């Protein structure tokens, strides 16, 4: 892409915000612009573009600002987030009407699982090298409409789009495969399932989401960009993401929307609970979906989390506005089917996206019910910090609109380690062996990507 044809109109001054349409290029052709940048972010929707959650992608190869907060400051993150958004917002409106696009710039960031614990007044016994809160200000970005194959460049300061990136030649494989090690063996994890069941039997909780992590040393010469390209090909997902900062990178293939908030104050959350495999045989696939749709344990698990999310968003919603328009829908993703519900509400006057995040983190689908006690038990029985896994990844637009995902199906990269997490909801009818198989089913595509990646 070059830019005489892609430059803003001559009447637009260099400092005036603008959006311009460019000739179509798919996101993967522009992702190499992130190579070599200290910070970059790519919200990467994969899968069938006909569905709204899969349609739009956003690429910011050079963010304008970076904010991090330690756990000690997490209770104040809504104030810091509002200030960070305001500091980087355009000083004046665009010179021409902006197209009806879902996101034209703002803040993209994440809140770790431990950040959610801390905001609820809990302290984890585990140490983590993941930032509690980190965010990037995105004033200049590409916007991709995968359905209509249209591309725009949005710039808050009137900058032209960068030239087309150089596509590097893939290096030959010279290193052994990356093989993450499970932090617990089969029997130890199944014992943890039984411990959770014992707490349920004693009346402490109704459900808890139990997870485990796989960890590998990060190879010194690892090409994270190449690894993400492989992940997005192997695991296309509606909430895929590349989020790169000094010292921490998230490579996400998340399938779960956490919260969305539009300009009219309408909220939606889509909790996922209930899983079964995908079969290449259509007849067998129908049997699997029917079985999932009528599985009493999976339905109960989904219902409890749906009710929890009704409570959480109700903290900031208008009285009587919370509804459940979808319950127990079976949706197909790249490697599994899930039971997905939808909870909606109308934001109260005086509340905003930061308040909505504060009222709901960490996501209910990865904690349990009651939420506070479930988090205490999770911290007791799990053997490591979750970090970014089970946290929240979000984009907050200049006008206050929000979309976010639960960080699942992801690879976290620090300076020294690569980590993958997986888990599932435990209720009293849970069978430890079955829960272990479900957890491994979720982790398998990510572990395969690491093990087969040529680096």
Automatic annotation (TrEMBL):
Location of the Chorismate-utilising enzyme C-terminal domain: 187-442
Ranges of compositional bias, category Low complexity: 1-17
Domain Anthranilate synthase component I N-terminal, chain residue ranges per copy: 26-152
Record-linked Gene3D superfamilies: Anthranilate synthase
Leader peptide range in chain numbering: none
Pfam families from the UniProt entry: Anth_synt_I_N, Chorismate_bind
SUPFAM superfamilies: ADC synthase
Start and end residues of each stretch annotated as Disordered: 1-21
InterPro entries: ADC_synthase, Anth_synth_I-like, Anth_synth_I_N, Chorismate_C
Superkingdom of this protein's organism: Bacteria
PANTHER family per the UniProt record, alphabetical: AMINOBENZOATE/ANTHRANILATE SYNTHASE (PTHR11236), ANTHRANILATE SYNTHASE COMPONENT 1 (PTHR11236:SF9)
Protein name, entry field: Anthranilate synthase component I family protein
Gene source species: Bombella dulcis
């Amino acid at each position: 892409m070059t830019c005489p044809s892609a430059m803003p109109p001559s009447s637009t001054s260099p400092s005036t915000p603008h959006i311009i349409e460019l000739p179509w290029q798919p996101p993967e052709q522009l992702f190499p612009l992130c190579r070599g940048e200290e910070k970059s972010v790519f919200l990467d929707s994969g899968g069938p573009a006909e569905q709204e959650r899969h349609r739009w992608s956003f690429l910011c190869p050079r963010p304008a600002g970076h904010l991090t907060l330690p756990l000690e400051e997490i209770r104040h993150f809504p104030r810091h987030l509002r200030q960070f958004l305001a500091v980087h917002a355009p000083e004046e409106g665009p010179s021409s009407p902006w197209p009806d696009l879902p996101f034209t710039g703002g803040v993209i960031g994440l809140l770790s699982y431990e950040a959610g614990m801390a905001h609820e007044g809990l302290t984890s016994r585990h140490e983590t090298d993941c930032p509690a809160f980190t965010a990037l200000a995105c004033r200049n970005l590409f916007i991709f409409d995968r359905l209509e194959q249209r591309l725009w460049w949005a710039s808050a300061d009137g900058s032209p789009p960068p030239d087309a990136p150089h596509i590097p030649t893939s290096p030959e494989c010279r290193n052994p495969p990356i093989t993450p090690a499970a932090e617990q063996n089969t029997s130890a994890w199944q014992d943890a399932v039984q411990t959770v069941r014992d707490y349920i039997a004693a009346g402490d909780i109704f459900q808890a989401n139990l997870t485990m992590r796989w960890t590998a040393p990060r190879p010194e010469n690892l090409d994270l960009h190449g690894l993400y390209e492989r992940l997005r090909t192997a695991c296309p997902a509606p909430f895929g993401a590349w989020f790169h900062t000094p010292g921490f990178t998230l490579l996400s293939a998340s399938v779960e929307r956490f919260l969305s908030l539009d300009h009219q104050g309408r909220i939606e959350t889509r909790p996922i609970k209930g899983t079964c495999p995908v079969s290449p045989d259509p007849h067998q696939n129908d049997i699997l979906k029917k079985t999932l749709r009528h599985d009493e344990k999976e339905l109960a698990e989904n219902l409890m989390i749906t009710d929890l999310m009704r409570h959480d968003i109700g903290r900031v919603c208008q009285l009587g506005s919370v509804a459940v328009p979808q319950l127990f829908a079976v949706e197909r993703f790249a490697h599994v089917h899930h039971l997905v519900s939808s909870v909606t509400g109308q934001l109260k006057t005086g509340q905003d996206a930061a308040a909505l995040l504060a009222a709901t983190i960490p996501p209910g689908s990865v904690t349990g019910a009651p939420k506070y006690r479930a988090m205490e038990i999770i911290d007791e029985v799990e053997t490591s910090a979750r970090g970014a896994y089970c946290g929240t990844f979000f984009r907050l637009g200049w006008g206050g609109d929000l979309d976010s995902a639960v960080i699942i199906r992801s690879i976290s990269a620090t300076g020294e380690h690569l980590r993958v997490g997986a888990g599932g909801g435990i209720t009293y009818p849970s069978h430890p062996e079955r829960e272990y198989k479900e957890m491994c089913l979720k982790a398998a595509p990510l572990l395969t990507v690491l093990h087969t990646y040529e680096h």
